[in-house]
Amino acid sequence: MPLHGRTVVRGVQNDYSELKQIGEGVFGRCFSAYRVYDNELVQLKEYNVTSMSIADRRQLIEGIEILQCMYYRHIVQFYASFGDPEADVHYMETELCANGSLRELISCYRSLATSGAVSHQNEPPVIGARRSGRNIYIDEAIVWNIAAQAIAGLAFLHNQMEDGERCAVTHRYISPESFGINGDGVLKLDNFEVAVVAKASNSPFDEINRSVTGVVGVPAYRAPEIKEGEYYGPLSDIWSLGCVLLELCTLKVPPVYVSESSEFEVYMPDHYSSELRSFIRSMLKIDPVQRPTSVLLKANKNLSRYQHAAVPIPVPARALA
After folding, report:
1. What is the pLDDT of residue 156?
2. Are residues 132 and 229 in the same domain?
3. Which 3-state string (H, E, C) describes the chain?
4. Which residues pair with 95 in a beta bridge?
5. Are residues 37 and 169 in the same domain?
6. Which of 180, 181, 204, 292 is least enclosed, having the fewest CB within 10 Å?
7. pLDDT for res 261
8. Cα separation of 105 and 315, whole Å?
9. Which parts of the chain sit beneath pLDDT 70?
């Protein structure tokens, strides 16, 4: 059955060629494919709607509709949404981030750091890799660059208008897998399937930040208020992004917040500047009210300096071996 009445209905086999699975999405599989009519390489996400609950179908519809409205440099571009008449599946077509994701980027550096093939005397063979003693790490300028582009995308999401009212989109699935890198080295936010919109009306902005419920997201990047079953909002995305940036700096999956009674310590390597360490720690405050908004983060002087500098995001080395 088609997921949405306004979607285009067509057959995947007739309109796409050379489908290749490149990953698993929030509700299904992801493929790269060539669009037959113009030979454009795109991303195709497949959703098996018959195996989804009614609530999940509704959420998927909302997420797709949100992405349809998002036209911004740091958000993956939506192309089409359609059902396949030959099967009970639904598809969404978007731009393909040809240089992979931040997950692949982190894996690239992690493999380099643990590889015995790199001698102590040689310079790291990957762009943006630096050495501190025997440790390999990502150059600070690249971390700032990634932070600047990611926060620009979140600031756009978190400050929307709908029917003349201020509202905020909460992404709810921020993780390294949700950031793609296109052919020009531009960071793109993807995976909008569980995104939701919260309207502010005439209420204080704080009410937007406490207007969403539901335990979603990748556990290692899930904000404390989500794990505690509390109301939350855009500031939960800030925590998740802080975890992503922390992982870029440590090349380790961030520690999982367990409960208010447990300790949560943010370790940052000392080869990074105090400015960067303080910046990331500010995003990882247990109390969401103490976290800066995406707009405040975007105004950080270091972000503006590195965002416009000629610092390329290195292409993930899928074949380091």
Report:
1. 95
2. yes
3. CCCCCCCEECCHHHHEEEEEEEEECCCEEEEEEEECCCCEEEEEEEEEHHHCCHHHHHHHHHHHHHHHCCCCCCECCEEEEEEECCCCEEEEEEECCCCCEHHHHHHHHHHHHHCCCCCCCCCCCCCCEEEECCEEEECHHHHHHHHHHHHHHHHHHHCEEECCEEEEEECCCCCHHHEEECCCCCEEECCCCCCEEEECCCCCHHHHCCCECCCCCCHHHCCHHHHCCCCECHHHHHHHHHHHHHHHHHCCCCCCCCCCCCCCCCCCCCCCCHHHHHHHHHHCCCCHHHCCCHHHHHCCHHHHHHHCCCCCCCCCCCCCC
4. 42
5. no
6. 204
7. 52
8. 7
9. 1-11, 84-87, 115-127, 133-134, 199-213, 215, 257-264, 308-321
pLDDT for res 87: 67
Does 273 lie in the same domain as 184?
yes
What's the sign of the alpha-carbon dihedral 158, 41, 43, 144? Answer: negative
Q: Is 317 part of any domain?
A: no
- Give the CATH number, domain containing residue 43: 3.30.200.20
Residue 206 is predicted with a pLDDT of: 52
Tokens 């902005």, located at residue: 205
- Is 291 part of any domain? yes
pTM: 0.87
What was the pLDDT predicted at 272? 94
Q: What is the pLDDT of residue 300?
A: 92
Token digits of residue 33: 């494919």
Residue among 281, 293, 292, 294 at smallest CA distance from 249: 281
The residue range of the domain holding 216 is 100-118+125-303
Q: Per the domain annotation, does 80 fall within a domain?
A: yes
Per-residue model confidence as pLDDT tens digits over 114-163: 764 444 555 555 667 777 766 788 999 999 999 999 999 999 999 987 77
Residues 293 and 163 in one domain: yes
Establish if 83 belongs to a structural domain: yes
Residue 145: Cβ within 10 Å count: 24
What's residue 263's pLDDT? 53
Which CATH number does the domain housing residue 173 bear? 1.10.510.10
Length of the chain as a residue count: 321
